Inverse folding.
C-alpha cells in the first residue's frame, strides 16, 4: 500500500515540475577567457542551469524575461582566499587575532560567516575559497547551509581547520597550549598528517590548507608530498600558507596546488611556479584601505605581482580579508583589492580573467561551475560599464544571479526566494 503524498510535498513537486524558464536579454555578454564581447545575446535558464545562449535563441512564451540590454553581463567573480568566519578589528586598541579566536564562539563566527557571505554575493562574488580560521568548522556549516538553500551565499570551497606543525601561527604559553585548537590542527608526524587530512575531509573540507613555514620547524618536502598524496585520495588539492622564501621553495618542490600569500616569492620562485603550474594566491592588500601595509611594503607587493605576471605564473584574485573596516562590507573590502592589481599595471581584461576563469580553476571547479555555458549552474553578474575597458566597473554590480535565482536586481538585493528555499526531501520550496 502506497502512502499518500503530504500536501506540502505535493505542492513542492508541482512547483518544481512547472518551474518557470528565465530568459535574460544581455546587451553585452562578456567571455573573460577569450576576451570577447557578444552583443544582444539571449540566455535561457531552466532548473538553475544555462540551457541556451545565443543571438537567435527563441524565448519560450511562458518565460520570465529579465532585461539587461543596457548592461555588460559576466560570469561571477571569485575570491580565492577569504575568511568569512573571522572578523576582527584592525586598530591600535583591538588588534589581536588571537584574542578574537578566544572570545568569539563557533556559533557567533558562523553567524558572521553568513553575513559576510551575503555581502560577498552582493558584490558579485559567486565563489569564495575560504581557507580556515573558522573555529570548529563554521565554514562547513556555512557551505552546507548555502547548498541546502537555507541562506543565500557564494559557492564555498572551504578548508576546515588549518593544519600545521605544533602551535600553528600561535605561540601560546605552556599553560594555554590547548587554545591553539580549533583554530589549528597540530600535525607533526606522518601519522598525524594523514589523520589531520582525513579529519578535515570527514568534516566537510573541499580543499586542504597547511602552514608550510609558520614555525622554524616547518614542513619538509616529503611531509608536504604526503599532504598532497593523502588529499588526492579524495580528489582534493593542497593550499600552502607560505611566509619565507625557503618555505616557498620547499612547497614548489613538493608540488602543492597553490601558494597562499606572496611574501616569500621572488623571480626565482615565480619561474619555478610557472614551470610546474603552481597557483599564486598572493593576497596583496591595497594601500588605500583602512587596514593597509606601509608604502614600502605595498610597492614590494606590486613589484612582485608585476614579476609574476611577466613570468606567466598562474595568478588568482585573493584578499585574505578577515577584518572589519568601518563603513565597508566584506564584499566591498574584497572588491577594493582591485587597487593592487591596477597599481601593478595588469590590463583590465587580464584582471577580469584572473577574477573569473582563473578563480574557477584554482578552486578546481572549472568544468562544474563558473563559465556562462550551457549545462552549467546559472551564475552571472551584470554591470553598467565595460570591465574590459575600466575594471572599476566591477565596483557597482547591479545584478546577481546564483544557481538560476535572482539575488540582486537594479542594484538592490532581493533574496526572498533564497530564504524560502530550504530543502524538503531534496526539493526546494520557492
Amino acid at each position: 500500500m502506497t502512502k499518500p503524498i503530504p500536501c506540502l510535498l505535493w505542492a513542492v513537486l508541482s512547483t518544481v515540475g512547472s518551474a518557470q524558464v528565465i530568459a535574460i536579454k544581455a546587451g553585452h555578454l562578456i567571455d573573460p577567457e577569450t576576451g570577447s564581447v557578444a552583443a544582444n545575446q539571449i540566455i535561457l535558464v531552466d532548473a538553475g542551469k544555462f540551457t541556451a545562449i545565443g543571438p537567435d535563441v527563441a524565448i519560450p512564451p511562458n518565460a520570465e524575461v529579465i532585461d539587461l540590454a543596457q548592461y555588460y553581463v559576466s560570469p561571477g567573480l571569485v575570491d580565492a582566499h577569504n575568511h568569512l568566519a573571522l572578523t576582527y578589528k584592525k586598530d591600535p586598541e583591538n588588534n589581536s587575532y588571537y584574542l578574537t579566536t578566544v572570545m568569539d564562539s563557533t556559533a557567533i563566527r558562523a553567524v558572521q560567516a553568513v553575513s559576510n557571505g551575503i555581502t560577498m554575493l552582493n558584490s558579485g562574488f559567486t565563489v569564495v575559497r575560504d581557507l580556515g580560521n573558522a573555529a570548529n568548522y563554521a565554514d562547513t556549516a556555512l557551505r552546507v547551509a548555502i547548498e541546502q538553500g537555507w541562506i543565500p551565499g557564494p559557492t564555498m570551497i572551504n578548508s576546515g581547520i588549518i593544519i600545521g606543525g605544533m602551535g600553528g601561527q600561535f605561540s601560546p604559553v605552556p599553560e594555554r597550549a590547548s587554545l591553539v585548537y580549533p583554530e589549528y590542527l597540530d600535525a607533526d608526524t606522518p601519522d598525524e598528517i594523514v589523520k589531520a587530512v582525513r579529519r578535515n575531509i570527514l568534516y566537510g573540507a573541499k580543499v586542504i590548507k597547511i602552514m608550510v613555514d609558520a614555525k622554524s620547524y616547518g614542513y619538509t618536502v616529503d611531509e608536504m608530498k604526503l599532504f598532497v598524496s593523502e588529499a588526492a585520495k579524495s580528489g582534493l588539492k593542497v593550499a600552502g600558507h607560505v611566509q619565507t622564501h625557503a618555505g616557498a621553495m620547499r612547497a614548489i618542490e613538493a608540488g602543492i596546488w597553490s601558494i597562499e600569500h606572496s611574501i616569500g616569492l621572488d623571480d626565482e620562485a615565480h619561474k619555478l611556479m610557472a614551470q610546474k603550474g603552481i597557483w599564486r594566491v598572493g593576497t596583496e592588500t591595497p594601500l588605500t584601505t583602512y587596514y593597509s601595509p606601509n608604502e614600502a611594503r605595498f610597492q614590494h607587493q606590486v613589484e612582485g605581482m608585476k614579476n609574476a605576471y611577466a613570468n606567466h605564473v598562474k595568478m588568482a584574485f585573493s584578499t585574505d580579508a578577515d577584518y572589519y573596516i568601518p563603513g565597508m562590507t566584506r564584499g566591498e573590502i574584497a572588491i577594493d583589492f582591485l587597487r593592487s592589481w591596477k597599481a601593478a599595471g595588469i590590463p583590465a581584461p587580464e584582471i577580469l580573467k584572473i577574477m573569473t576563469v582563473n578563480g574557477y580553476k584554482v578552486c578546481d571547479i572549472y568544468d562544474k561551475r563558473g563559465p556562462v555555458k550551457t549545462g552549467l549552474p546559472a551564475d552571472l553578474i551584470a554591470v553598467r560599464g565595460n570591465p574590459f575597458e575600466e575594471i572599476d566597473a566591477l565596483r557597482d554590480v547591479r545584478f546577481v544571479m546564483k544557481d538560476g535565482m535572482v539575488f540582486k536586481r537594479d542594484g538592490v538585493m532581493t533574496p526572498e526566494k533564497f530564504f524560502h528555499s530550504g530543502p524538503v526531501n531534496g526539493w526546494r520550496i520557492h
Q: What stands out?
A: Residues 85 and 111 are 8 Å apart (CA to CA). Confidence is low (pLDDT under 50) at residues 1-18, 422-430.
